[in-house]
Design goal:
This protein is an all-alpha fold and about 210 residues long. Helices cover about 55% and strands about 0% of the residues.
């Protein structure tokens, strides 16, 4: 662990420390899980849309299909939530996101709209998006060694024994530029829910505290 810490800069270290433990509220209700899913997919769209569309043209057909499906899923999920379904203006933004993706709009406009919707969802649902206690590094290290090393490697470089041939490749946690764009809450959602169409599965067997 000491060698790993020496390899990363302070902002990245803070992010890693925060993501190792998330002792927030237990996701006890279906609404909590639905809100988490919406936020997770909106974050993913905002971050990964440039891999699907560039300058109004489909760059990767598989990624583009994923963006469209994720956007539709957020709309369908929002429609079922009591705290959101009567918010016509917000629901119209979900539809607008669908339309802009269909139109292959710019990455900046997609990211801005997705982030705006996420902010509104968090405000309306009062959803908790920050850890409340400092993480247990020993627990985090043990969990990483058991669950993450096969794909992400012992140093976090994304070059574990199972990484070869995976598309997309496992995330390189030593990439400080990449990690500066990922919040602890995004990391929590990714670990909890996984990412469809990739080797990153959701770790439902872990408690919120362990995630």
């Amino acid at each position: 662990m000491h060698k790993f810490i020496k390899l990363i800069n302070l902002p990245t270290l803070v992010w890693v420390l925060m993501m190792l433990l998330w002792p927030g509220k237990i996701l006890a209700s279906d609404q909590d899980k639905s809100v988490q899913t919406i936020i997770h997919l909106l974050d993913y769209i905002a971050r990964d849309y440039p891999a699907a569309v560039q300058q109004g043209t489909i760059y990767n057909a598989g990624e583009y299909a994923e963006m469209k499906e994720f956007s539709r899923t957020t709309y369908r999920t929002a429609e079922q939530l009591q705290s959101i379904r009567n918010e016509k203006e917000l629901l119209s933004k979900f539809q607008q996101l669908n339309d802009r993706i269909e139109e292959k709009s710019s990455a900046d406009s997609i990211a801005a709209l997705a982030k705006n919707i996420k902010t509104e969802v968090i405000r309306l649902t009062n959803y908790q998006v920050a850890p409340t206690r400092w993480p247990d590094l020993a627990l985090g290290k043990n969990l990483y060694m058991v669950n993450c090393v096969p794909c992400h490697g012992t140093q976090g470089s994304g070059q574990g024994k199972l990484a070869k041939g995976l598309r997309p490749a496992p995330t390189n946690f030593l990439d400080s530029v990449l990690l500066r764009g990922v919040s602890p809450f995004q990391a929590f959602n990714t670990i909890r829910l996984g990412i469809a169409g990739t080797a990153m599965r959701g770790f439902e067997e872990l408690s919120d505290e362990e995630v």
